[in-house]
Amino acid sequence: MTIAEWCILAAVLLYLLTIAPFKPLGYREFDNQKPRDPEFYKTPLRSRALGAHLNGIETFPFFAFAVLLAEFRHVPQPRLDMLAVAFVMLRLCFVLVYLKGWGWTRTVVWNLGFAVNVWIFLLPLWH
């Protein structure tokens, strides 16, 4: 498997791990019978974690498709790997600034991640 393919898995794990720790940490308030109860996510930090989690789910399909398209079109693997790692690192930064509540920084980081993803998608044009 390529580094870019491992980055697809990393992107999934990142959005899952964005929300997962809040459930056991809030065990007295978290009801596993109602895992999506909006009341649980009313605190500011949990609300931001949920937002980052949902955004990770939203961005994942385009990233996975772009990586697989680039590999299918046989773009230079080192370039694809570098960009895929950059995307995952930007997503990690996105989650951290989202949790911190830094709205403007979050927007900038999201746009950088989107630009990298578009770059991956367009790699076959320059191959």
Structure notes:
The protein is mostly helical. The protein has 5 helices and no strands. The chain is elongated. The model has no long low-confidence stretch (mean pLDDT 95).
Please mark out the parts with pLDDT under 50 across 5 or more consecutive residues, or reply none. none
- Largest sheet properties: none
Task: Specify the structural class.
Answer: mainly alpha
Share in β-strands: under 5%
What sequence of helices (H) and strands (E) makes up the elements?
A: HHHHH
Compile the SSE list and pairings.
Elements: H1 3-19, H2 22-25, H3 44-72, H4 77-100, H5 103-122
Descriptive key words:
127 residues; mainly alpha; 0% strand
Write a short abstract of this structure.
This protein is mainly α and 127 residues long.
